[in-house]
């Protein structure tokens, strides 16, 4: 029998030596000969998905606007300076691209285009900050309760349930009302306090599935400690659904910030689409564009993040298609 | 490096000059507390393995062979598992009395395990080179680069073609036999003194089974390791093992050197197992099967656990649990290493 073994091996070895790619050729797909992981497969899928490309383009554009809003407007126009005598509710000049009067002026004579551009930063910052905090906190809580189970899980899950039971908007109003000055981190924190539970639940479920896998037992049998098992073996296998939920939720957090600002309990310092939508609603019958442009910008931003999240989900979970 | 020094310190005092068996399992009991009651998976198992020796543990599903192995490795889920009694002596030290940290240092370094299904036992998101290298990085503190070089070397040892080119590949890119070779490489990486292989070839093609078994046997001889081979495949055992322990309902019902046990089984259960192997010279005849099913472990029959299925069962079998009798030849000479837990072992051997 050993003769047979060695023969087979030499045949295989010879094959492999002459054409190293031939062995791998059975794995049809991207870049034959290159190792393929879940992530590299997902990346291959994403690069060929128009939804991903479009949303990525939009998100990159929005990030650039958020970083340097003045880059997109000709001349130096402050979003806070209004000239009531010259520009009170002046209509949009659609032919004047990238100029202060492009989207018209609001009831205080401020350039709507400039305000829309400058409002991007607050929205994106809130969305990204909440997502980061929520993923970190929720992810860790889910990892711990899912892995250790037992009474740890019971306690953590009940705490999660308590937070989950608080109505989102009501909770945010109560928290934010205690602050007189509401900066971006304050609003982000208020949203994160109420938002981490969904991520924690997703992570917990995912970890419970993964921890029963044979490779976790195998890692333990080969001497891996708890930390290594948690972060090297379980986390990379359990994190995909969390990434999907987090990217899709990002759009939701941006909407939530706009909602709070619309209600007057959101940002106090920054320029925000929600505030502009709120003030625009008073002129809905005479000057619809005051409300339209910030609302449209908000919609496009949320859509971009939702599409991005959807594309990521499809790439990470091909079965859902 | 401090981890390694500590490991040695833990094992040194008795390890030096200790000349007993490498692993000695004594009167091991394992039970699982479930909603339906207490499932007694292992009920007083005794076996020992010397360095360089291969012990095959044979038995049906649910006979407790894998649970015993998990208890030795310390990877039993507790709760619901519990070890109410018994000792697992590794080089003269009882592992059940060690701290979790001490046991973790033994796992992988001194005792390693090979699992049944290599695909699910390898982490799908990490490359095989990374997982193999992890053994060296975690236990020996090697750098990433050195660990990868060692991983390639190890992949060569287990005869994976073009090891250097494939070290960054992921488990799903390998065939079943190659994956099992990688598992073997991981288990052997630190040259442990004892390897437990839990049905290492069950998930493989018959042709690949032989290759993997040969490889395992070859490497075992080379490193002079003890090997516990858990299987239900009598064919696999015959070539590789030195001695056999047959398990039924959590107890060892018969043990002995391979060839003698095959030639002349001393327990009706072993006899039944051997007779249920399909044979070419009995083509066309009905294949023998042991009647009935293995017992429910929450309600093990009184007396000999095998009595409801045993063709030789008498009244005494339903009341008295047979001890593991040392066996003797008809002329009274001792059969070295052979024992049978049957009241009627004499009749079984001679009839």
UniProtKB/TrEMBL annotation, chain B:
PANTHER family registered for this protein in UniProt: DIPEPTIDE TRANSPORT ATP-BINDING PROTEIN DPPD, OLIGOPEPTIDE TRANSPORT ATP-BINDING PROTEIN APPD
CDD domains: ABC_NikE_OppD_transporters
GO molecular function: ATP binding; ATP hydrolysis activity
Entry keyword annotation includes Protein biosynthesis: no
Name recorded for this polypeptide: Peptide/nickel transport system ATP-binding protein/oligopeptide transport system ATP-binding protein
Organism this protein belongs to: Streptomyces prasinopilosus
Annotated Gene Ontology cellular component terms: plasma membrane
Topological category with respect to the lipid bilayer: Peripheral membrane protein
